[in-house]
Amino acid sequence: MKGGSMRNRFRFCRVLVVGAAVAAPALRAAPAPAAAPAAAPAPPALVRTIKMLPDKAPDCTTLKTIADTVTRGCRNNDEKAVAVYNFMNLSHYHRAYPSEPGGLSALKEINCYGWSLCGGLHSEQSAIWRELGWGWRFVGWSKPGHTTVEARYDDRWHYLDVFLKFYAWMPDGKGGRTIAGEDDLKARAQELLTDGCVLDKGRGCVYAKDNAFVTNGDKANWQAPAFLSCGDDVPGIVMGVNNKHAAGAADGWAGINHASGSYAAEVNLAPGFCLENTWDPQPDAWYWNGQKEAPRHTCGGHKDTRNDPAYGLVLEPYINSKPGRSYGSGVLTFAPSFAGDACLASFAATENVRCSGGRLVPVDAGKPASVTVSLATPYILTKASGEAAGADTVEVSVDGGRTFQRADLKDFGAAVKGQLGALVKIGVKDALKSLKIEAVVQNNPGALPFLSPGRNQVTVSVADPAALGPNKLVVTYAYRLGSRTKSFEQLCDQGKEIAKQHNAKWADTVTVAQKTFAAAELPATFVIDCPTPKGQFPVYPRMVFVRREIVAPGAAPLPLPAGAAAAQPAAAEELPTLPNPFLVGTEIPAPAKPRAVKTSQIPLAYAQFVSETGEVGPKGVLRWPKVDGEEGKVLRGAVLVTGDLKGLPARGLAAARLMVPVSAGHNMAPGKLGVVLLKGAFEPGKACKVKDLTDTIGTGLIPKQPEATPVYTPAKAVAIDVTRGMKAVASGERAFHGFALRIVPDRGTDEGYTVRADVSPTERMWLEVDTYAE
Question: What is the value of pTM for the model shown?
Fold first, then answer.
């Protein structure tokens, strides 16, 4: 949703239309949910509502538990609204609607999917608001097409957009400030939006004017929320609130319903069952009704998380293993022990069988014999397979047992894909010697109970401990510890993103915390310490899996990862923490402390012009093809710039601008002049790979060339902000081998023209540096 040019609005629409899912600019309420399928029989020994919850993680069992756990510690309703906003962004990215026939409950979408478009995301957000006792209303924007929602609390409306990732504070609300509503933004657009927000071009996000990721005194204001991080902009919001229409408080939107209906997110397991949820996807183990492309966030480079100090830090450990956010996978395993007839209570149904000598055998050899396994989880089944030594027949039912179809136990995923449960009926002719079934499920990794740096108090509970009987509940967390070698102050000073793994790493060794509980020991709590080495800084652990299993007497839990290390208690000084991620952004920022700067200049020199054909010369015209059709016709060209940056301060660098003498631009449109830090030294008179000059560290505007002035004499100095790149050089993160200047095609600037520019090879070029005076 970028206001202004058609190009910018097309970027927004491209997000909204994917495959067969088409977003409608007009508001549309969710359909009523379809009738629930027949309930499958449950095993007699089922242990219900198994919970394993760290004290800082959300509990996604119900919408009420989500609302309660993400808002704990909140002091007022504005803080609760921010907490829900942070949770929604932790657990969701934008992609086409995960629609299901008859509609999809918000709770199921949160647990099983984790992606949607604007109407769906805001249906889920308002479903959580409803649990807080708030009102809500959906609001449509006709220009550009977008569905928003507002919360009603403290006798007024409040707008928090988890699709665009934006909210704004009114400085004169109840208690000193409050989150603005869309009417407020419309009436005070200049104050709250145009003047109230600043774009950080280097990081690619927007901050509130008085709350940016900058150093204030000797501290970095690192908890500043990053807004509009996927490329949307403030003018688009101004356009939206000026073209809005309210549609009221529907109980859902775009196929996603507030009501949970028949869906329940409780984890229920019988003896011999294990449910393991992971933060990573298995290949092709996804379900998305009617789609042929795997779900993933299409805004590349982790745009939505890399600058965010709340949910971004929680998701930071996964950047190096995923090109973008996507689904997660889990595994439901059933491997019963046939040591005695007690194992029969783990089956949903049994017919004419008993245990004998570690096998299941018919009671009456002349009658049919079978056992029926219930594969039921809160998560969608995507794959299934098994082994059954001695099985006679295998049948599968996905309608609660009303009908069964023959299946191949080695791979019956196609029969159950997209279901929350299935029944597997195994016929026994002579003897069933062993049985193991594995079903892969799709879970939303952003809704799983993560661990945090520092001390974690983990609560373990079940609905009825007596249902455990003589069996044991074994719970396991597997994760990789990590740390950062630089502080947020150093990241800020170097212009780095806050959650992009800068100066951070995670161990190759998997750490495991495993506890075993008998019925009499539940509910229980235990501690998992996630330490940080002395002298370093905390990061969230890289979660591998969370596992719950019901282990029968004489049986063993599933194996731990090879080479895993047992979790150990840590000393207090090794347990630094990070703030509650859901409350990040709720604190009023400290007043800015003015810092005096002194400005200096470092002279630079035009070294040579180079083109993609290998041409090298003392001067040349900068061009760059804007579309594939211009390849070979519009030749890429660049100016290489050299200089000695010994005068660049190692600390206290506030800003840096490259001042480029442009002698001529394009006579039809402005152009964008980009700066690239060379990755290696160049030799005078020798060509370089011009096509590789793609990673710009800053851009500046070359104005449209006046018809009456075909050449600037003297040259016009174009300032290009290169602060971020120079901070990387000053800190030693990058070596300086020179700059390259090139045209950066951008329809929003050049209006579609193939622009050009001349840089004077003889007039002065310099780096202008601002350094903090203190």
Answer: 0.87
